[in-house]
């Protein structure tokens, strides 16, 4: 019984951290910071018109991921979003971010399976 509670508490901790990181990333996009604009436009080659949509997708996927009834849908959405981010960053040879996003995907599915 105790092991189950520890496992579920760990799963919820990981879930919360993942959701907070995704929402923080979305907030940075929505704040329209000059450093973010430079990275978004110059390094990644993304138009400004996609930034708000990407932020909305991150927030909605995070909310769905946290809610138990929609956790699988949220996990799929976060995985798809991060998969696109991995492809985008590999295109510009930003390997550390691709590795980070890959670890996040593993944590997402680990947390879902433990919950």
Automatic annotation (TrEMBL):
Name of the protein this chain belongs to:
DoxX family protein
Q: Where in the cell is it found?
A: Membrane
Domain of life, source organism: Bacteria
Q: Which organism is it from?
A: Aporhodopirellula rubra
Q: Which InterPro entries match?
A: DoxX (IPR032808)
Give the bilayer topology.
Multi-pass membrane protein
Give yes or no: UniProt keyword Protein transport: no
List where the protein spans the membrane: 59-82, 94-112
> Can you quote a single GO CC term?
membrane
Sorted UniProt keywords: Membrane, Transmembrane, Transmembrane helix
One of the Pfam families matching this protein, by short name: DoxX_2
Per the record, the major location class is membrane
